[in-house]
Write a structure and sequence with these properties.
It contains six helices and no strands. It is mainly α and 161 residues long. It has one domain. The longest helix has 27 residues. The protein is globular, with a radius of gyration of 16 Å.
Length: 161
């Protein structure tokens, strides 16, 4: 199914998967207070690239476009907190929250696209996301709850040397 996508859409999807995978690596690094430079750099680069390629796919101002704008703003603040302000003082929790929110938004879009494109999920909620039916709402609600909890622990535990 993924090979049937148009080439640019395929690139966008693969970039998004890299952003999500590396985002989880960064998230677990936050939990263990691992500063690392490589994984956060890859994660933030691919998150920005996901947004850029996503904007190229939009035709007009849609909820997806709005999500892309928010994701871009969060990514810029997270990049500044990490690389310009070196996570000093208040920039440490700003970085941790920004990284978690950036990952959440990537996963949010993944779930939304999964309900739109995967036949088994689409059958459960054929009108989602425009009309959030229970399976879609429950999936997004549980993911949001998981990321709120993850964000709390990321801020609490992330204390790089």
């Amino acid at each position: 199914m993924i090979a049937a996508l148009p080439p640019f859409v395929l690139v966008h999807v693969l970039v998004a998967f890299v952003a999500i995978f590396t985002g989880f690596v960064v998230l677990f690094g936050l939990f263990s207070s691992t500063r690392g430079d490589l994984w956060p750099s890859i994660f933030l680069f691919f998150t920005v690239l996901t947004n850029v390629t996503g904007f190229a796919l939009f035709a007009g101002f849609t909820p997806a476009f709005f999500t892309g704008i928010i994701s871009s703003l969060v990514a810029v603040i997270t990049i500044l907190a990490r690389f310009t302000f070196r996570m000093a003082g208040a920039w440490r929790p700003i970085y941790a929250v920004g990284a978690v929110v950036s990952l959440y938004l990537n996963v949010f879009v993944l779930i939304t696209q999964s309900f739109l494109k995967l036949p088994s999920l689409h059958a459960l909620a054929p009108h989602a996301p425009a009309n959030p039916e229970p399976p879609f709402a429950v999936a997004q609600g549980l993911v949001l709850l998981a990321f709120v909890i993850a964000g709390f622990f990321a801020v609490k535990k992330f204390r790089p040397a």
